[in-house]
Amino acid sequence: MDSGRKILALGGARSGKSQFARRTAEASGLRPVLIATATAQDAEMAARIARHRQERGPDWLTLEEPLDLGGAITLAAAPERVVVVDCLTLWLTNVMLEGGNVEAEIAALLLAIRESAGPVILVSNEVGQGIVPETPLGRAFRDAQGQLNQAVAAACSDVVLLAAGLPLRLKPGAAMDLF
């Protein structure tokens, strides 16, 4: 996988995004690094994190970074590594709940993606196809997530939409051998 390759994997909940990102990284022949944005705030989330860790196996280096995602990408990216960010949706949630400057954090993330020293695969939820959220915070999150996905898609060489575990290429790059 060439060092300029940036892939955005989008989809709904349980659509196969994480599995796609993991398989793509493992097929690259590079050292896989996961930047995990989730925090285990309850037993169910702790179990999800443990399951994902087990699925990845011992060859993966894992960095946990719920807020400074741009900094984590800059730190982890290298020509001999492929970085997987899982996921942008939880990261945005963390930033918003911490009262962070969403626009500034997205700008820092985009800069890190564009300038990364190696390939990056980013996982994000497509949240705009459902009902209109009832609360102002929910609507603000939905809007910010849509803006984030659009900005990251523009910064990536490839964008893949997953549904039922099947990838649909929305923005193909040069060589589309993703697996």
Sheet of most strands: 7 strands, mixed
User: How much strand?
Assistant: 15-25%
Number of strands: 7
Fold-level CATH name? Rossmann fold
Oligomer: single chain
Roughly how many Å apart are the termini? 10 Å
> What would you give as the CATH superfamily?
P-loop containing nucleotide triphosphate hydrolases
**Sheet/helix structural class:** alpha/beta
Low-confidence stretches: none
Note the run of SSEs as H and E.
EHEHEHEHHEHEE
Shape: globular
Mean pLDDT: 92
Secondary structure layout plus pairing:
Blueprint: E1 6-11, H1 17-27, E2 31-36, H2 43-56, E3 61-64, H3 69-76, E4 81-86, H4 88-97, H5 102-115, E5 120-125, H6 136-155, E6 158-163, E7 166-171
Descriptive overview:
There is one protein chain. By secondary structure, the protein is α/β, with parallel strands linked by helices. Helix content is 43%, strand content 22%. It has helices spanning 17-27, 43-56, 69-76, 88-97, 102-115, 136-155; strands at 6-11, 31-36, 61-64, 81-86, 120-125, 158-163, 166-171. Strand 6 (158-163) and strand 7 (166-171) form a beta hairpin. The chain is globular and about 45 Å long.
